[in-house]
Specification:
Blueprint lengths: L1 H30 L11 H32 L5 H12 L3 H12 L4 H8 L11 H25 L3 H9 L4 H29 L3 H6 L8 H10 L4 H33 L14 H30 L4 H5 L2 H37 L3 H8 L4 H4 L2 H11 L7 H15 L1 H25 L4 H29 L5 H4 L7 H10 L3 H27 L2
Helix pairs in contact: 1-11, 1-14, 1-17, 2-6, 2-8, 2-12, 3-6, 3-12, 4-6, 4-12, 6-8, 8-11, 10-11, 12-23, 14-15, 14-18, 14-19, 14-20, 14-22, 19-20, 20-23, 22-23
Amino acid sequence: MFNNLTKITAWLLYATIVLLYAFSLWALMDNRQEETLFSLTETLPILKYSLLQAVLSASISTILGILLAKAFFYLEFKSKTWLYKSILFVWSLPSLVIIFAVIGIWGNSGWIAQVMKWIGIDWHSNIYGLQGILIAHGLLNIPLVTKYCVEALALIPSSQYQLSAQLNLSGWNYFRIVEFPMFKRILPYVFITIFMICFTSFPIVLMLGGGPKYSTLEVAIYQAVSFEFDFTKAVMLIMVQLTIGIVLQALLFFFSQRALKQSNQTTNVELWKPRLASSRKLGLQSILILQTLLILLPLVSVLWAGISVSHFWQRLVNLELWEATLFSVLISLIASITTVGVTYLIALETRQLLYRKHHFLHAILGSVATYPLILPVFLLAVGLFLLLMNVTLSTTQLLVLVGVMNGIILIPYVYPMLFSSMWETFNAQDKLARSLGLSGFNRWWIAEKHYLVRPLANAFILAMSASLGSFAVIAFFGTPDFSTLPYLLYQQLGSYRTEDASVTALMLMLFALLPFLFNQRTKTSK
């Protein structure tokens, strides 16, 4: 009976998600005009720029991330773990905090401009355009590349490092013979992942693009719906993004197979590392110092800007700020419950299908985790916005609506994490559970709880952290009376309320820090 209940529930959830996307697409098609001044050929400049900035952002992030990973891996110094975790924290920051940090360092009134003015140099910086987008994407994604590459270097056997020392390998030969064979397994996956992040980037391009010339597909869709009310144009752009999304997802799946094989290897506990030559050590130290400054100074600028504003305490206790904070927390909780709950219930059935070797049904049901990646985020947000445009929603209804949509969007990131843990637990505990006649909740409580509590908690924290900084959905449903921290920060930056924005950015950064610290604590307590 329990198996039948989980089967029905899983397929009902699958049908519900599919219908949500179908109704969203129908709403867009139903509202599109017969005629539009926009033609499909006009997507080419937008597509060209989207691809250009994504390629450049991914390339810069990958190269600098490799160099920073090598510095962290080979150098030994005090507070290394603390510094490494501080840099990883940057990747968990909401995009709007990254934008504020970039402006605080590189803007015309930023720290660099003030230092230049102090030493007597008339220095002006224009961060709006391609250069600002590349800086923000680099700041966001270099920590991710660093994490993957440090883990890859740790998987190289000690014998290879010892052999390279005996052969006196250095420079390009050392990289080609020792490091590159491991990097080539993980770097394609990392590059495609960052490319997808940058290609679908919305708030960074919206705020730092500087005009229509630097518009990407996501920004063009948002402008077509919110400002031009040209739904035919929005449909065209969504179809283009859908096509590219399918291609990118196929590439990501192909490269992820090799990356997952590598990640499943056991890291060397006591790894022998070669002694660094003085010139190489100096080079790595220089890379570490420069990149640490480039990555962490923007965070310091956010902290300093937040606490140094005039009337700090009055701004901190502002009712508007705390209402946005409350809505952000509630939406994050709803999104986390939605993501973890839906993912867990679907994974219960997919692992049964995989165990019974029903591969086709397993692939169909499991494919729900790829829909939010392949289908543009705005397809769901815009479609439901149009469906409910003439409906007056209460604050509670808006909270649930935005929270559930955020939760659906996060399923691709939570499902692989939960399914792998649930599948391993099933294989390890199934015989014991069957021999004891356990089923339903008793099976989970006695045989699986110990193995699944931590993955479930990590998935919940990941979803909550990601939802706290989410902007794509609230961009359509936000109002002056219903605002989250990212939406409030966007409004304040757009209306040049810089000091208010400083406190909001600080608050958002601190709230993003709490899930990160909890996640790090669970990792160290294993």
